[in-house]
Each structure stands twice: as structure tokens, then as C-alpha cells.
Design a protein that fits this description.
183 residues, Nuclear Transport Factor 2, Chain: A, Arc Repressor Mutant, subunit A
Length: 183
């Protein structure tokens, strides 16, 4: 899941250049022919993709502080407090969901603190009363797991930097949640 999350951070052009060069070892000249760009442009796209990966790998906020931010987000979400949620999110935050066509979720990334906060309050309003949100480690960082009757329905991973949430990845695809199933 972590590699897929990294790929989601890249633009489509960066993703193609990175995968073809760094994974499949295509020379930049061949990539340029495939994508209709110059070799120098493809080299720059792959370089930009690598920078995105490095930036996402190193947590900018210590784990204890990340956990506090996620905990505060959970509390504000449960209280349906839009203003507090906005304050916990980076102004340019992004939320990305994966339902795999097997679970209901938003189809396109949600961008911006206010938009994400409003969407999360709407999610809270629609959540079943017996849904529980548990603080868990997700991809080595503090995250949340939504369960109903002991069954994991959703996993939330967070990228936190400067005590603000920059990205939320939501996994609802049941095929990807098999490892999280508890009952």
C-alpha cells in the first residue's frame, strides 16, 4: 500500500517517467519516444518523482506529535466541528480514496482544508451509530481504523507536517483490507 500511496503523490507524467526508468530501467531516450517528450524533460519528470518520494518518506513531524494531530482530528471529526478540522488541515491538503469499485467512496481527490472538513463532517453524519474509530499505526505512522461489529471497513493514513495534515489516504476497498480484518 505504501508504494501505491507514493505513486498517487506523483503527476501522471512523473509516474510514467519514474516507473519506466527507475523500475523497468528504460533509457530516457526510449521513454521520450513513448510519451512524446524530450529525454531531458523525461529526466526532469523522473527526478521530480524521486523528490516527491523522498519528501513523503521522511516524517516532518515526530510520531508523538503526529499522533496528537490525528487524535485531535478524530475528536473534531466525531464532534462534527468544521472549524477545528480546518485548523488541523494544511490549507492545500488533499484527501484520496480507494474503494476499488467495491465500496462507496468519493471518486475524485478532495482538495483544500475547508472542502475536506465539510466532507468529513458529512461522512460523520452518515456513519452508522455503531461505527467505532480506533487509533492505529498505518504504514508506520499514526492513523485511524473504522470498524463496525469488529469488522474493519476503512483505514485512514495521514501525512502530517508542521503539525498539520497534508494528505489523507482512505482505503475502503475490501480486497485491500484483508490484513486489517479482525472478525
Amino acid at each position: 500500500m505504501a508504494f501505491l500511496v507514493m505513486l498517487e503523490l506523483m503527476t501522471p507524467a512523473e509516474r510514467v517517467a519514474f516507473i519506466l526508468h527507475d523500475v523497468f530501467r528504460y533509457p530516457f531516450a526510449e521513454i521520450a519516444e513513448i510519451v512524446g517528450r524530450t529525454p531531458a524533460a523525461c529526466r526532469q519528470l523522473a527526478s521530480s518523482a524521486r523528490r516527491r518520494i523522498r519528501a513523503a518518506q521522511a516524517p516532518a513531524t515526530p510520531a508523538v506529535r503526529q499522533a496528537a494531530v490525528v487524535r485531535a482530528f478524530k475528536a473534531a471529526w466525531e464532534a462534527k466541528d468544521v472549524d477545528v478540522l480546518i485548523g488541523l488541515l494544511d490549507s492545500d491538503a488533499t484527501a484520496i480514496a480507494d474503494g476499488g469499485g467495491l465500496a462507496t467512496t468519493f471518486l475524485h481527490p478532495i482538495e483544500g482544508a475547508a472542502q475536506i472538513a465539510r466532507a468529513w463532517v458529512e461522512i460523520a453524519r452518515r456513519a452508522p451509530r455503531d461505527m467505532t474509530f480506533l487509533e492505529r499505526t498505518v504504514n508506520g505512522r499514526p492513523g485511524l481504523v473504522a470498524q463496525q461489529n469488529g469488522r474493519t471497513l476503512t483505514v485512514f493514513a495521514f501525512a502530517v507536517a508542521d503539525d498539520r495534515i497534508r494528505c489523507i489516504w482512505v482505503v475502503r476497498n475490501p480486497e485491500k483490507l484483508r490484513l486489517w480484518t479482525t472478525g
